[in-house]
Structure formats: C-alpha cells, structure tokens
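Here comes my example:
=====
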Amino acid sequence: MTREQAEALVQRLEAAYNTDLRADTRGIYIEKLMELALPVAVRRVERLVETKNFFPKVSELMKPIDGEMHLHTAAGAPWWEGDPETRFSVFRSQKLLELDELAYLEYLADPEVRQEMDTQWRVEWLASIGASV
C-alpha cells in the first residue's frame, strides 16, 4: 500500500471517531498500515469502524480477521480477485476514501444517502468492468 492510501485510511479512522491524532501517533498508524495490502487494510478499517466504539489501537488494526490467513489462491492470485462482491467492496472503499468529511458523515448517519451512494457506486463499478447494469 502507498503512503497516500495509508494516510487516507488514517483520515477515515479520524473522521469516524471524531479524533485528531498527534503527528507521531499518526505516523505509527501510517507505518503499520503500509505493511498491509490495500484490500486487507480497507477491510480491517471498515470492520473496526463498524464494531468499535472507540478509536482502535494499532494492535487491533494489525490483528488478522476472518479469511486473511489464506491471502492467495492455489493459482497465486490474491484471494479477493475472484470474488466480484469483494472486488466491489474494494472499489466502494476507495470511493469512501475520496469523500470529504461532511459527505462521509452524511453517509454514516443517513441510510438513504448511504443507499443512494452505494447504488451509484455499484453502477459505476459495473460499468468499469464492462458488465451490464
């Protein structure tokens, strides 16, 4: 994962928990996230945002979750490449990272906004892979 992607994930955590990390603490989170593949990091961040009431510790962020022990298939491809829903999830996560803080908070708070954005992103994703809507 690139530094920019790791920084975006840390910003997402800060927005979700309404927290501004100190620069040195933020640097540790970014360093640790950069050790992970983007799909793995996005999945972990999303899981933590959905399940934790307080800003997660680095150890919680680095703890593997279901399905991560076998990151590659027998053919050597990443585990998520063959699963369309997981590929869409990665696409959706990237779109979430692109939202500004206000739009992200609306996404979290308003089910109608969330449904509208998710539907729009699914249409974009299907078009990007050449599938019919």
Summary: The longest helix spans residues 111-128. The radius of gyration is 15 Å. Confidence is low (pLDDT under 50) at residues 70-76. The helical segments are 3-16, 23-34, 38-51, 58-62, 84-98, 101-109, 111-128.
